[in-house]
Amino acid sequence: MTSATAPVPLAERSPEEIEAYLQSQRTAYAALTGRGLTLDLTRGKPSTAQLDLADALLRLPSGARDGDGVDVRNYGGLSGLRELREIFAELLWVEPEQVVAGGNSSLTMMHDSLVQMLLHGAVDSQRPWSREERVRFICPVPGYDRHFTMLASYGIDMVSVDMLPDGPDVEAIARLVEADPSIKGMWIVPTYANPAGSVISQEKAARLVSMPTAAADFKIFWDNAYAFHHLTEDEAKSVDILSLASAAGHPDRPIMFASTSKISYAGSGVAVLAASVGNVGWYLKHIQYASIGPDKVNQLRHVEFFGSAQGVRDHMAKHRAILAPKFAAVDEALTAELDGLGIATWTRPTGGYFVSLDVLDGCASRVVQLAKEAGIALTPAGASFPHGKDPRDRNIRLAPSFPVLDEVRTAMAGVATCVALAAAEQLSGDREAKQPAGYGNPEGA
């Protein structure tokens, strides 16, 4: 709202005032749909300007041998180039022998790890997980949709727990894993979580690796996808989860993943797995049957481009300069139109790629539908929950990274209008009775 005085929350207004607000938002929405927009806030992709930052990669590597004199064009080197593992070891607070440098996708390394556990069991399993009567995973919500769809594709049951500003609800997790041996693992994005931007505290991380579990081979899939993606100069430091786990007597519990997919080139970066020496040996033992070695030419290209861990940090400061204004634009648009109305809350992340928007219960699908009709593509409501089902139908993940800044401003002003209209419809009880022409079929949202 632009008024200097604080607005009266919408739910506290009289029926007549709500009706007047509804009509004003319908007018605003009609103007929005008349603009012929085609904008996309669906996925957290790097923008062209961010990708341009890494274009020196196209002229690298300068030769065909790594620092040890090995010809990177040939087979071999299953664990990846030593120099690349050393860079990531420093960034992730681990030792180089705890790092495997792979191909372009950390999601592929997560998938490989999960499938090998299903087929063969983890390093500390008595039998393959597929021979268990039931396999379940803890899933903090809202969370990363690709984690959930991976589990669903293998019939793994998902148990939701709340993601809080300082990490997941560890008390709920502790109760679940201590009582249920079918819970074999959990997902977590520990730093600038997708989509809420949460950063796990040292205390919660220590609890996760020390808590008793009914399954002796319980695993934490520690997806450090956004560890270096800071939006402010006050940079969150990633928890040294491997040292915490070792000190707690459970060195094999966590397996960490990271990549340069949003650092260099999204489709041509490098990914790493970091874990205990035992888990690293287990992983290499199984992938040797699927690979004779990663793309070491691309790994050398990245070694030369970054030069060191500090080179990665310096590069990410350039990303921050591009991304931070877009996230500020999201907050400015939502604050200007929705602040004080009591119909929406949203995160103000200090890193990562997303803003998590909560609208009135039962309104998220409607907001996404309205935005679609206005030419603004949003991530489907519920995408941040297992099976795409948000039980309260209130959460929407916003991804402002890909559009240019002016498009972010335009899109978010439109989203704010859609949120306001959906809320006014619900509070007036008038959603079905007075839809203007062109709203479309809610079932097709």
Write a brief caption for the model.
It contains 13 helices and 13 strands.
Spatial arrangement of strands, main beta sheet: 2-9-8-7-6-3-4-5
Assigned CATH architecture of the largest domain? 3-Layer(aba) Sandwich
Q: What is the ordering of alpha helices and beta strands?
A: HEHHEHEHEEHEHEHEEHHHEEHEEH
* Sheet of most strands: 8 strands, mixed
- N-to-C CA distance: 28 Å
User: Could you list the spans in which at least 5 consecutive residues all have pLDDT below 50?
Assistant: 432-445
* Overall helicity: 25-40%
Q: Report the sheet-strand fraction.
A: 5-15%
The geometry reads as globular
> What is the CATH topology assignment of the largest domain?
Aspartate Aminotransferase, domain 2
Top keywords for this entry?
445 residues, alpha/beta, Aspartate Aminotransferase, domain 1, Aspartate Aminotransferase, domain 2, 2 domains, 3-stranded antiparallel beta sheet, 13 helices, 38% helix, 13% strand, globular, disordered C terminus
List the helices and strands and how they pair.
Elements: H1 15-33, E1 39-41, H2 48-52, H3 82-92, E2 99-101, H4 106-120, E3 136-141, H5 145-153, E4 157-164, E5 167-168, H6 170-179, E6 183-188, H7 202-210, E7 219-223, H8 241-247, E8 254-259, E9 271-274, H9 277-287, H10 296-306, H11 309-338, E10 344-346, E11 355-359, H12 364-373, E12 376-378, E13 395-398, H13 405-428
Parallel strand pairs: 1-12, 3-4, 3-6, 6-7, 7-8
Antiparallel strand pairs: 2-9, 4-5, 8-9, 10-11, 11-13
